[in-house]
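Q: What structure does this chain adopt?
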Amino acid sequence: MRWIITCLLITGLFTTAPLVSYAKDVHIDIIEYGIYQAVIERKETASTSANGVDRLKKQTLNEQTDKIPAVLGKRFGYRYRISGDTAMKNVDLIVRVQSPLIKRPSDNKEFSSQEITLKKMTLGRNQYVDYCFSDAWELVPGIWRIQLLMNS
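A:
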């Protein structure tokens, strides 16, 4: 079986310190990470994503791990919390997925980085982000990173 090594927010993943700082008043903490199961509410297209965006109803952690098998339907990611300045109610985030080079066969478009913007994410509430191998052409071994970026 081929394995894809997944490094989720490499810096500080196993620490309790905030992982991302935003104007010294807002930070992101990882709550849990690994392989998940989820119920898909709907799928949306996104020009900056190789396979669109799944809008999910429920996500359940199956296994805490940073080694993800290259299997169709495998979903991996993490649950996180944005904390900080109570004057700020929410923040915009960019989710960036960096991967080995993948090529969508329908149009031969290549991806090694995909981004979507999450608008008005609520501070103090648990949030979730992931990637799911939906098609065989995504099953490329290597390092995959799911990053959250605030303030570009």
